[in-house]
Design brief:
Number of strands: 13
Distance between the termini: 39 Å
Structural class: alpha/beta
Shape: elongated
Helix content: 40-55%
Largest sheet: 7 strands, parallel
Strand content: 5-15%
Strand order of the largest sheet: 3-2-1-4-5-6-7
Radius of gyration: 25 Å
Oligomer: single chain
């Protein structure tokens, strides 16, 4: 098989551009493997990841119809009308437009591989790959709870154009392994250890919000969504609030861009009803989470639906912060109970309060779990090793494509030679 020495040309489809886990993961990958791939990135618009990746990519292409969520379309006039159903309807027109434009981009750059970095990128990438006969790699970062979602994404994974499915945990790999085991590679999310080095981070949280230095800060970092269990966390903190005057709760994050209602405002009102708002802070979205994360004493991820991974968990580990997580999904693959954090019963705010209180009342335990977490993240979630493994998958898929076309050319050549020999024999007779 002929070896092509040039970097693998990859068309990355990523509609997650404003601080979500998929976007942050792609940023870390490109920052560490940008020299080993020729990266072209399709995004709906410039977002917070643009400045972080632009020096490591050949070109960024903007396709506004390539939306992150089916619930919110890209057209301003639809947003002004405020009709949720109209967003869904218009995206049935917008996504085919996005697909057509991405086909034009792919024809122009002739990628070796199309890499789908987000859930809604998968059907778009699968169509483009099928249409242009380009191999497709999915990066699965979701656990599909709904029956229809599981069926749909397993169908996409089974298409001939889909050569590999990279899953960020065993939990997210489960539905694909049942259907197409040979295509699945489990590669955990990874963290840039040089960025999440506590010695270079200047904490801002306590100073910015007048939180006492001796306060014990319970932190949440992520989007404000119902499935994230924010109501469970608020109820748990209400129990801690009554018994621990040093405890504070800080939520870093904002509404999901696809929502058509203000979930953050609802949660703030609920905190007020629970009479905990004087020690509960909703600080909104922060492009750089490190100065806020570094002021946490405990991170919590109280999701009521299973997380596929929980990227913030390894970011917290990297700076020595223990976590309390709901004991389901990929989170239990990251946080080991009693070693680098604690588990709580999903949806049970009494149990969450107990686990949080266990850490709040034992500084030695927090330090021990934090130290183990720092060691664990360096051993298991280092960017250098895991980013290299993704590149290996991409190179393998590219080589499979080269091998296929070489094999096909050889088959055609053999057929021509046989036809020529047969013709020569007929003439001789």
């Amino acid at each position: 098989m002929t070896q092509d020495k040039r970097p693998t040309r990859v068309l990355f489809l990523s509609s997650c551009i404003n601080g979500g886990g998929a976007g942050r993961s792609l940023t870390v990958y490109l920052n560490h493997e940008g020299e080993n791939v020729e990266a072209h990135v399709v995004m709906p618009e410039p977002g917070v990841i643009e400045e972080r990746i632009e020096k490591n990519v050949k070109k960024i292409w903007y396709v506004k119809e390539f939306v992150e969520r089916i619930q919110r379309c890209p057209y301003a006039w639809v947003e002004k009308l405020g009709w949720t159903w109209l967003h869904w309807l218009m995206n049935f027109f917008a996504l085919p437009i996005a697909t057509a434009r991405i086909i034009c981009i792919a024809r122009r750059i002739k990628p070796d591989i199309i890499y789908c970095n987000h859930m809604l990128a998968n059907p778009v990438g699968a169509f483009v790959g099928t249409w242009l006969k380009i191999p497709v790699v999915f990066h699965a970062r979701n656990i599909h709870v709904a029956w229809l979602g599981r069926k749909f994404y397993r169908f996409l994974a089974g298409l001939s154009c889909t050569r590999r499915v990279i899953c960020n945990s065993l939990a997210s790999a489960l539905i694909y392994r049942e259907y197409t085991e040979e295509k699945v590679s489990v590669i955990y999310n990874f963290v840039d250890l040089s960025e999440f080095d506590r010695s270079i981070i200047s904490p801002l949280l306590r100073k910015s919000y007048n939180i006492p230095e001796d306060a014990l800060v319970i932190g949440y970092l992520g989007r404000i969504l119902k499935k994230k269990g924010i109501h469970v966390l608020l109820n748990a903190f209400a129990r801690i609030y009554a018994t621990n005057p040093k405890a504070y709760l800080v939520l870093v994050g904002d509404n999901d861009g696809a929502l058509h209602h203000d979930m953050r405002a609802r949660c703030e009102a609920y905190a007020k009803n629970l009479e905990i708002s004087d020690r509960t802070f909703f600080v909104g979205f922060k492009e750089d989470i490190r100065p806020y994360l570094a002021d946490f004493d405990i991170l919590t991820l109280p999701s009521v639906e299973p997380e596929s991974f929980g990227r913030v968990l390894i970011e917290a580990m990297a700076v020595g912060i223990p976590s309390v997580v709901s004991a389901h999904g990929g989170a239990v693959e990251v946080v080991k109970h009693g070693l680098n954090g604690l588990w709580s019963i999903p949806g049970d705010y009494d149990d969450l309060a107990r686990q949080l209180d266990t850490l709040l009342s034992d500084a030695d335990l927090r330090q021990r779990l934090g130290r183990f977490g720092m060691d664990h993240v360096r051993e298991q979630f280092s960017e250098s090793e895991l980013a290299r493994r993704i590149t290996e998958v991409l190179n393998e898929v590219r080589n499979q494509k080269v091998f296929y076309f070489e094999k096909r050319r050889k088959q055609l050549s053999d057929l021509r030679n046989k036809a020529h020999e047969s013709k020569s024999k007929r003439r001789a007779s």
